[in-house]
Amino acid sequence: MRILTELxxxxxxxxxxxxxxxxxxxxxxxxxxxxxxxFALDSKPxxxxxxxxxxxxxxxxxxxxxxxxxxxxxxxxxxAVGQKGPVFFLPGTSGGKLERSxxxxxxxxxxxxxxxxxxxxxxxxxxxxxxxxxxxxxxLNEGATLAATVDGVKLKDLEKYRVESPMFNxxxxxxxxxxxxxxxxxxKSDGWYVILxxxxxxxHDISFSGSVLGNPVTGxxxxxxxxxxxxxxx
Length: 234
What we know:
Shape: globular
Order of helices and strands: HHEEEHEEEEEEE
Number of domains: 2
Number of helices: 3
Oligomer: single chain
Structural class: alpha+beta
């Protein structure tokens, strides 16, 4: 009995140590060395990479018809439309400056869409290879400027948060925000995204902006998005 008891104690100690190591590793891989409170670029928030979350973001925002789409929302009343899972998407604007007020459920991480672009087969039917899709998206982001603050604290080195998605499937609904023909397509995106760890309950102020000057050589147009979110965490 004594031997079994000792073995049981050792087993318990081993389990505890393994649990501590697992927690320590989890904290280490998710901690961002650039900005506190931000998931690191090489982490997997809730089991998905930044790259996959970028594809998830595009699938979410593209699936919502124009009349209910949060991108065109001027007040924040549509913040929660279609929001599912552990990450709450915070889009920019379709151009210009807006201020929105939103309620965010407790425990939700926040996905900040500072500036990005996608190229789909529907919009650019001549694209064939993944490299061509990526070049198309990057050309749309040429010469970008970026800024973001969380509760008055400026996020640093935002240029390092540039992420390309994998090739992904998405479907344009009728009356979509892109004005494209409804139906399935494939796409790839390029952009700057920040995933914030869940905020504490209460009021929070998040602002971010991005702009591109446009380039007549590539045919891109100038564009600016600037948004302030007055968030209530519950």
